[in-house]
Amino acid sequence: MPYFSYAQIHFGPITLYTWGLFIGLAFLAGYGYFFKEAKKQGMEENKILGLALTLFFGAIIGSRLGYVAQFPARYFSGPGEIFEFTAGGLTFYGGLLGAVIFGWLYLRRSKPQGSKPQGGKLDLLKTADLLAPAAAIGIFIGRIGCFLINDHQGAPANLPWAIRWLDGISRHPVALYLSLNGLILFLILLFLKPKLKKPGQLAFIFLTYYAASRFLLDFTRASGTALSDPHYLNLTFSQWASLAILIAILFHLKKRRQV
User: Using CA atoms, how far apart are residues 72 and 201, in angstroms rounded to an integer?
Assistant: First the structure.
C-alpha cells in the first residue's frame, strides 16, 4: 500500500488530531467495559470513576517519562521539552508502570467495594482482572490512531500489506500489528474470563501474553534509521522491558512450584 499519514481530521471549521482522538476513544471504550464489569462486582460509581481517572493520568505521566528515559541527552539539554506532551513521545510500558503505581496508591487509600471483600490484596487482584480486558480493548483502539498517523517505521518487508515509505522501501505496518494484537488479546481474555476463578489470573495472562507478543512484534520495527526507535544491544526499550517481565513471571512460577 502507498505511504499515508492522516494526522488531522477536519469537520468544517473543527480540526481533530487523529492520534489524540483515538487515545480518547480508547480510554472511553476501556472505561465503558470497566464500568460495566465493576458495577457487577458492587463497586461504587464514584470510586470507579476515581480509579479510572487516576489510572489515566498515571498512564500519561508514566508513558511520557518512559519516552524521556529513552532519549536522556535530548531532554537533559532541554528539560522544558519534557512537558510538551503535544509534541508526541509516549511509551506503553512507561504508561503501564505509571498506571500500576497510581492505581495501587488509589486502591490503598480507597478500597473498591466488592460483593464480599476479603482484604486489600484480593481487592487489588480482582480490580486488575477487571482492568485487563479494558486495557486490551484500549490498546486495539489506541493503536488505530498510531496506524493512521503512521508514526512507527517498520522494518523492510516484501508483503502485500507492507507500506511503501517515502524512501521507496516497503515496510511492516507496525502499528496495525499492535492494534490487531490488542484485539486478539481482548478476545482471549473474554473467552478465559468465565473459566478462571482465582483472582489475578486474568491480569497475569494479560501481562504474559502482551510481554511475549510485544517482544516478537518489535522485530518488525525499523532499526538504524533516523525515524527508528533507539536500540540497545539490537533490542528496543520495549523488548528489554518485555524480557524483564517474562523473566519475573518465570521466577514467580518457579517459586510457586517450590511452595
Answer: 36
| CA 115 centroid distance within chain | 29
Neighbour tally for 110: CB within 10 Å: 14
pTM value?
0.88
Pairing of strands 8-11, 235-236: unpaired
Q: For cell 522491558, name the residue.
A: 241
Query: In angstroms, what CA-CA distances link 84 with 26, 88, 146, 148?
Result: 22, 8, 18, 22
Count of beta carbons in the 10 Å neighbourhood of residue 52: 20
The distance in angstroms from the start CA to the end CA of the chain is 54
Are 51 and 31 contacting, i.e. CB atoms less than 8 angstroms apart?
Answer: no
Tell me how far apart the alpha carbons of residues 109 and 63 are, in angstroms, rounded to a whole number. Answer: 23
Closest CA to 41 of 199, 205, 195, 203: 199
Residue type, 8: Q
pLDDT in tens, 58-114: 999 998 888 888 777 666 766 666 666 555 678 899 999 999 999 999 988 876 444
